[in-house]
Amino acid sequence: MRLTILGGGGFRVPLVYGALLRDHAPGRVTEVVLYDLDAARLHAIGRVLADRAYGIEDAPRVRTTTDLDEALRGADFVFSAIRVGGLEGRAADERIALAEGVLGQETVGAGGIAYGLRTVPVAVEIARRVRAVAPGAWVINFTNPAGLVTEAMAEHLGERVIGICDSPVGLARRVARTIGADPDAVRLDYAGLNHLGWLHGLYEGDKNVLPRLFEQGDELLTSFEEGKLFGADWLRSLGSVPNEYLHYYYFNREAVTAYQQAEQTRGAFLKDQQARFYATAETVPDASVWAAWDRTRAEREATYMSENRDVSGAGERAADDLESGGYENVALALMRAIARDEAATLILNVRNGTSLRALDERAVIEIPCRIDAAGPRPLPVTQLTGHEAGLVGTVKAVERCVLEAAASGSVRAAVKAFALHPLVDSVQVARRLLDGYRSAHPGLGYLRAD
Predict the structure, then answer these.
(1) What is the pLDDT of residue 280?
(2) CB 79 within 8 A of CB 3
(3) Which of 105, 159, 257, 447 has its CA 20 to 30 A from that of 31?
(4) Looking at residue 325, what is its pLDDT?
(5) pTM of the complete model
(6) Cβ neighbour number for residue 210 with a 10 Å cutoff
(7) DSSP β-ladder status, 31-35 and 2-6
(8) What distance, in Å, lies between the first and last C-alpha atoms of the chain?
(9) 247 near 308, Cβ under 8 Å?
(10) What whole-number distance in Å separates Cα of residue 229 and Cα of residue 403?
(11) In sequence order, what are the residues at sequence separation of 6 or more whose Cβ sits closer than 8 angstroms to the Cβ of residue 93?
(12) Coil, strand or helix: which one is 201?
């Protein structure tokens, strides 16, 4: 079985390959094709994978290419993890937003909109090439903003594109461990959009055991990552556990201030960190390049959402949060379910259908699904109501404006996307944001006056 990874020179590709190395069952991936526009980064990651696979007889073969059609041809699965504009673009997204006093995070607020405007046209072209060159392939999308990009690609690929994210899985596992439930045995009641969802229930059989979390003292409720971020009182007020990215909404003013006062934004930190790794990767001996990559990875994960944890007083990330086992294992489980018809339940980004009444059928949502060789089928969940439905509806409207702008080149639609977002407080700010992003990113040259 052949897996093609788009963005194959990306820093987190070795996580995916490491998961493949642990899979020795029949029907596993035997060949990996790495595609990237940057040949130097491709070569560096190729060396990391070769070092990791040393001595493993059945390690998947690795091939690299800078030709998209060549990469896609013959693929059974296509894993999309591209970054349009690179980390330089992400750092600019953050900087321009913060200068206007609003959040510039990669997937949330103004930064997410800017990233979406750059990424959607590229993702749509990839979807078209997949349909033309590898029509039988399944596309697993991890390109951010994951829900928005998956919805754009679904217009061309239908259900054969599935978005994934490790954030809901990590949330559910942390909560299950906290209340003494088996993370691998509970049924999850989780719903929303990517980076905008809530855990409403954890079921052992027919019994919802999530209320145990709120019945105990504050010490238990603040013993895991989300409890530390949001605080016991706010979680009790909600009666659910929000995805960690909702910290940007519930504590927006504090988050913006923390980012403005930080020595570096997250994007700038990663840009510098990865530049150092790729610059030195060629000089590291073959037998040491995996270790050099892994040290960089550990530093990256330890500093994840550090500004938010500073705001909430959460402290350093717990050891459980630093363990490997994120999106790469979700991707592997997804491929196994489809390729081997091994039914699995996963939280995925798929078309809504009739799952959430607050959204239309074509909207891509994040929800537990049963998946096998026939594809994903959303499972019943608690309906979004009140502020959840309102917030999700508003953000979906913003995403639709981004899709309209990307398809038509409409400046008016792009301004509307910024202005409608709940974390942007003025139409005039929205106009200045778009002006700033168009000046910083040549890739937004397709946007023109209506």
Answers:
(1) 87
(2) yes
(3) 159
(4) 45
(5) 0.93
(6) 23
(7) parallel
(8) 47
(9) yes
(10) 32
(11) 104, 106, 110, 111, 114, 115, 267, 437
(12) strand
